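Researcher: Here's a chain I'd like modeled. Treat it as a single chain, no partners, no ligands.
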Amino acid sequence: MTLASTSTHRDVADTGRLAPAGWLGSRFPTQVRVLTSRAIRAELSDRRVVVIRMLQPIVFLLVLSQVFGSMVDRSILPAGVSYLDYLLPAILVTSGVSSAAGAGAVFSRDMENGMMTRLRSLPISMSSLLVARGLADLARTAAQLVVLVGASVAFSGFAPAGGALGVACAVGLAALVTWSLIWVFLALAAWLRSMEAVQGISAMVTFPLMFASSAFAPLDGLPAWLRAVAAVNPLTYAVDASRALALGLPAGREVAAALATSLAVTVLAACAAVRGFRRPPVR
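Model: Modeled as a single isolated chain. Structure tokens:
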């Protein structure tokens, strides 16, 4: 290759083609697609971990349905609704909380082990790294939710009044809520840049977020102080909306509240995550 041709073209290792001089990288959608594919392949590299993650929501459902199902006052449940049918829509949402916390931990690990430093040297948008990480974890969460519903229908007799359409809408709503929470934990990871710190905060936040809500028992059955906390807990809106969709109950107000809350959280958390991630790496 002559000097002139060298000055106008250069090799692109990942494609084997020539790119014009001054090439600044692929477009944003391509970056997100490639990086998301990479993250998903990494998730699937260990089949043992995949199986464990798919089983986690099922085990959670079985344990909680037996523990709380034996204690809850059936008279405060919706008429004709079993505790399993009442609980599963909530597990759809709470499983997303756990997955979102995991997204922050994985992202902070990648920043600590130097992976993000290497990616920063490429001609790619910093935002594409965040979006790709979020999409990979959202895909994993969606697979978990589908497996959970399928196993519940096949082995536990899950048959809510909302039917297949209501359950599908509940799963979609849970995925949307998960997407907003993923951005919250990505923002934490981007600012803290410590896997231990992110995991510590995640454990401290997710436990009260899940249990101080309407997820496992109706608000009428909670102590007055806990009922007041649950009434302003954003997760309560998502659980109530998911439950109303699955059980075929009036869901307009609940769904609107869940969508509005998720949208607001996504916008604020995404802005915080991008700003935190654009800071220079800590030396």
